[in-house]
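Our working data are protein records whose layout never changes between entries. An example says more than a description, so a record of this kind follows.
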Amino acid sequence: MTGLYLTLAVGTGVVLVSVAAARLATRLGMPVLLAYLGVGLLLGQDGLGLPFDDAALAQALGLAALAVILVEGGLTTAVSDVRPVLAPATVLATVGVLVSVAVTAAATHLLLDVGWQTALLLGAIVSSTDAAAVFSVLRSVPLPKRLTSLVEAESGLNDAPTFILVLTFSAATLEAVEPLPTLVAMIFQLVAGGVIGLLIGAAGAWLLRRITLPTSGLHPIAIVACGVLAYAVAGLTQTSGFLAAYLAGLVLGNAGLPHRRATRSVAEGLGWIAQIGLFVMLGLLVTPSELPSSVVPALVVGAALLLLARPVSVLLSLAPFRVPLREQAFLSWAGLRGAVPIVLATIPVVTGAPGSDQVFNIVFLLVVVFTVIQAPALPWLARKLRITHHDVGPDLQVELAPLDAMDADLIHVTVEPGSRLQGVYLPELRLPPPAATTLVVRGPDTFVPDEHTRLRVGDQLVVLTTPRVREATERRLRAVARAGRLAHWFGESGHPDPATRPEPAGRLQTAGPPTRRR
């Protein structure tokens, strides 16, 4: 038990330190991944001495974490935002990835004098972008919605082809890789994985509409589980699990299921837990004393990727679409790397590919160094390219505050057949202040009531109150439901209540039915 308590204490301490470090990184305009990686490095072998060198375990846990992150990304993405940019995003995530891999590999082969297989492996690993890293920096920059949606959609889609390419270059020698069959196999895996994700997402949405779970807290769990199931089924059928997870989340998140806000909150929480665990683990896996020899190769590969491969891939991919050159320039610089390249770099380590340890160190350094270079410059670059809207403020960050934080309670009331709430005007409810009826749902209509609103059978009322007067509000609503508008003279049973004094006649007159009705 002592070991259990110690493990829990250390684990929760790491989470809390990571959360605090993320806050510091955000203030500095850096993606939070740097904070989490820093915590892992401090805990690792060259820091506090916590040993961790199991690349196979890191790969398994990393892929599981990425599945949760992709499901969360799909659940929190609006189809209405993705639909207008789906075509260019798909081309960027497929053709753009192939171009980026080819250009990065050629530059790496020529500049570092490494073999073509290692060069192609490096190019494939670093060709995936990270939307979370971009948006954590651009949260306060008023960019065009089309541009942010394009970056988000590309980042959600390009993980799948890069994963397939990394597996291909890690598991077989370059001589055994045939370009045309490999391309056909990749297209099949992407299409089949996408179909599996869409089918499981649609089936999950259909099922959740038709079953009633005993508590609302089970809905988010069931929805996230459907997304992870899509990832697992696609993996078992040798198709793209990444794409299946993202598309299943996209379908479920836009299916109009109940408890959408709760589902989104739970999914975001699980996504954050996955990110914290993933980056801290990857930081633990790195041995800082082995990194200096990889600094120059990381800078060379990163510079080739940022200054040559990414711009060429964006230019060629978006040529058929009417994307302004200024936005293309911004997209080229905004291709931040995050968790996926580091996790993908564990695959050649596990398969025992030649030079895999060096590849992992190069990728780790590249992600860290070029995130530090690119991220702070993104807001400045957006202003210099004049793609920000000067007449529009930054996107509003809306936070759903829990009612307990506002010291408030919600009471949901339905006017049942036979209830004497029928025909009562809102002023006649005489709820104890500060309680108030804030919303009425009447059939397909939802409106904010006023003093002219008269209750009907089937109406659903949302009453906002405080803990201090909640019980009195409930008693008052029950009394009116039993005794009608004259319930101020009666108790809840409908019989005279001697403890309740009738109000003065003048006040009774002002509570009469208004002349205008709704």
